[in-house]
Amino acid sequence: MTLYQPFLDYAIALLKERLDLSPYPIPEGFEYKEGTMGKGKKQEAVVTTSYAFKSPKLRQIRAAHVRGGASLQVLNFVIFPHPAYDLPFFGADLVTLPGGHLIALDMQPLFHDTAYQQKYSEPILPIFKAYQQHLPWGGDFPEEAKPFFSPAFLWTRPQETEVVQTRVLEAFKDYLQAYLDFVEKAEPVTDSQQREEILEAQRRYIAYRAAKDPARGMFTRLYGSEWTEEYIHGFLFLPDPLANAN
């Protein structure tokens, strides 16, 4: 069972096609990790693999892919722009657990002022609305999380795996293509105050995501708390946006 492998394959192929891509260093012990879940006859192997790249405008493009049979499939795919640009983050959380599928797709904004929304949210609202009719709203999410999402946040809980394999995959492709269109057009910010605001906005996002990472419990059960915290802070959400930004 590799429900999200087609998503990852598409993303990597598209990135290589559209960007001047180079490897991003993955710390030792994070590229591949095995564990088990369940007990007795219900015990299943779980494999976590990590992927990372960078490009001149994107300081880190990284993915964590967890495969643990039909009841545990996860792809967490995030693009962190270089802090010289006002680009939003690209975030895809694709999760399948025993209780069902949880899908979150967005271009997560640095700011919420009208000009920023006109630049980065409004152009993708037609994509969001096209999928919203097939992928209904997934319900409430924490109030403290709302500043980190855009009006085009696609949050849904599909009942059928086939919907993930079709509608969700197409939405993922369209969002990623649109994001790379933004990257293509992005120009570096030259104003020093604005660059400092971008840096602070990136730091807020990273701190929030690291503190509230919903995969923490799963990874802790699989691999222990020490490895999990090192993985979250040392690979998934690096605390310094200027690290490896060149």
Explained architecture:
By secondary structure, this protein is α+β, with helices and mostly antiparallel strands. It is 38% helix and 24% strand. Strands 1, 2, 3, 4, 5, 6, 7 and 8 form an 8-stranded antiparallel sheet that branches. β4 and β5 (73-81) form a beta hairpin. The longest helix has 25 residues, at 161-185. The model has no long low-confidence stretch (mean pLDDT 94).
In short:
With 246 residues, the chain is of the alpha+beta class. Helices cover 38% and strands 24% of the residues.
Supply the key terms.
246 residues; alpha+beta; 8 strands; 24% strand
Note poorly predicted spans: none
What overall geometry do the principal axes of the alpha carbons give? globular
Helix count equals 7
Helix content: 25-40%
Secondary structure: elements and pairs:
Layout: H1 5-18, E1 22-23, E2 32-37, E3 44-55, E4 58-67, E5 73-81, E6 89-97, E7 100-108, H2 114-120, H3 125-132, E8 154-156, H4 161-185, H5 192-211, H6 216-223, H7 225-236
Antiparallel strand pairs: 1-3, 2-3, 3-4, 4-5, 5-6, 6-7, 7-8
